[in-house]
Amino acid sequence: MKRRDFIKKAGAGSLLAGSVLVSACKGKSQAEVKPAAVAKTDKPLEWKMVTTWPKNFPGLGTGANFLAEQIEAMSGGRIKVKVYGAGELVPAFEIFDAVSSGTAQMGHGSAYYWKGKNEALQFFSTVPFGLTADEMNAWLHHGGGLELWTEAYAPFGLVPMAAGNTGVQMAGWFNKEINSVDDLKGLKMRIPGLGGEVLKRAGGTPVNLPGGELFTAMQSGTIDATEWVNPYNDLAFGFHKVAKLYYYPGWHEPGTTLECMVNKQAFDALPADLQSIVRNAARVANANMLSEYIARNNDALEKLVNEHQVDVRKLPDDVINSLRALSDEVTSELAAKNEQARKIYDSYKSFREKVIKWQNVSERAYLEARG
Amino acid sequence: MKRRDFIKKAGAGSLLAGSVLVSACKGKSQAEVKPAAVAKTDKPLEWKMVTTWPKNFPGLGTGANFLAEQIEAMSGGRIKVKVYGAGELVPAFEIFDAVSSGTAQMGHGSAYYWKGKNEALQFFSTVPFGLTADEMNAWLHHGGGLELWTEAYAPFGLVPMAAGNTGVQMAGWFNKEINSVDDLKGLKMRIPGLGGEVLKRAGGTPVNLPGGELFTAMQSGTIDATEWVNPYNDLAFGFHKVAKLYYYPGWHEPGTTLECMVNKQAFDALPADLQSIVRNAARVANANMLSEYIARNNDALEKLVNEHQVDVRKLPDDVINSLRALSDEVTSELAAKNEQARKIYDSYKSFREKVIKWQNVSERAYLEARG
Lengths: 371, 371
Fold this sequence. Notes:
Two copies of one chain form a homodimer.
Chain A: H1 3-25, H2 35-41, E1 45-51, H3 60-74, E2 79-84, H4 95-101, E3 106-109, H5 133-142, H6 145-153, E4 158-165, E5 172-174, E6 188-190, H7 193-201, E7 205-207, H8 214-220, E8 225-226, H9 231-237, E9 245-248, E10 257-263, H10 264-268, H11 272-306, E11 311-314, H12 317-334, H13 339-361, H14 363-370
Parallel strand pairs in A: 1-2, 1-3, 6-7, 6-8, 9-11
Antiparallel strand pairs in A: 3-10, 4-10, 5-8, 5-9
Helix pairs in contact in A: 3-11, 5-6, 6-13, 7-12, 9-11, 13-14
């Protein structure tokens, strides 16, 4: 069977299954559907999760698998979630529409991939010189961020949840030294979201490509540089075979939130206990991914340096200072795009200002004291 | 009714309920107990959670409540958890024994409170100049830490889980300036765990008291100084009324893990889905507490400074350097106490060395770049 045929068949099957499930639940409000009743049916819901990651890709793809496993384990099998890698059911950048339309009940990706739908959505992934992982989680869950995200996804029939975080990323892989901001001029670099906008203002050409296409794009010279995630993920893609300079810190993605989006109709049809299970599974997946990266990055980094002769460098201070100034411009201009972007920006900016003050006497002061 | 009588009656009731529940489940292995069967009984388990915190204390006590709520919501009410503040069912520092004996099915505290049982347990709370919150979570969940903790609690019939984190704490409240390490000599300070050992070597007198007794101890002059948690928590206790100098960073507690401990017999008797719900509820509570603190500390700190004239100061570098050297001594000597302590120390130390290297090119480098 040709791969295209397989995808077509799988796609048709999923549409059918999706509509049967939705109509079975249609018209029932959350209050009417009792947990016990669902438990007794013994007919598990069969959900599909489409993702923007290569199937089983370490950290990201396995993070989506982990989320599915938690939902299945906590629900005692009342919800079974089948995870699809990028291109298996729909291409990476079509998962937003697939979950919105009900082709799949869930998706795992990151909100900045959908800036074509609404530029404001980028705040829910990451912002250059913005919040770290812990700060993003604080803003989302105790600073009004998740409410704003829910509002922003509602017109698409989607319920968003944070379901993974990379922590501070690396600045990326380069084939030439970056000694001044002039070295960014003319650079064709894969860098999504607001970071890409910043690169554009510095004279570069940002390109957005799914992860699975980056190695070939670097190898063929379609792009001169690429960022991806962090040593654990970057080692898995083998970027050290196509570039030797690996810069830090990831000014453009200081704590990227991965998302779990659920088709709203499918979510609303769940009884309260299963809704709570899905939401909490996402929060565990959110924390777990960060923990996994933090535990594994150093070993991967040492392997890159010691076995693959990768040259790890810090971006020069004046490059960082220029990028910070451009980032402020880009972010504040984004706020002027539409009313929703302004509202999200105001919330994000005020949270950022406060949390930086706290971090200066806590996390930052401590990391310096520890040495 | 006298409070003591109330506690006695509640205690007797709980013992009865506890033994009925345990015997109902006794003898069934995990595989024999089917989730559906439990769901159909419609007889909820009624669990007690004893805590070391004042009832509903912001952050810590509400964190225990949050954990109970998630278990109840995800289980659709199949487990109901009643939370008891310190002293309501048993005193704060007796909850370890209460859960071990089955008087309560769950407890919420922190492992360093139980150093009298085994000094090695302190590694599972926090270590001076040790791991931050994110690093602790990485060690516990992806670095072998939780397995070691499980092993260490097994002789007491307890199953441990991380269920809250304070993040980097403040160094504490003082009535005199700390300008050199000599100023710590003769200081009577409430500071638990390994931090207390370090203070002792610096010439001070560490005291361990439950949180609820600190304000009075400071007011009466029983102690000269106290650390507690962070601005959000410290404001709630009103320490600004009994001291004006508030030092940072919390070198002694850089990311204190709060624990959820479950009576092993009660936990093993649960069907697999409820076990997964309890474990994941703890992980969500673990992440949620840190997020709440990060979101709220700055407002509390500003209130302390602007409304209560608190003087926030950084510990001088040479004090930090002395404390770091003493901390290394204390921690490595702890490893020599027993074989288990050595095993945990080796794991912790090797993880710490690696993760510091990664943080130097990620979180720390980024916080400096952001400015």
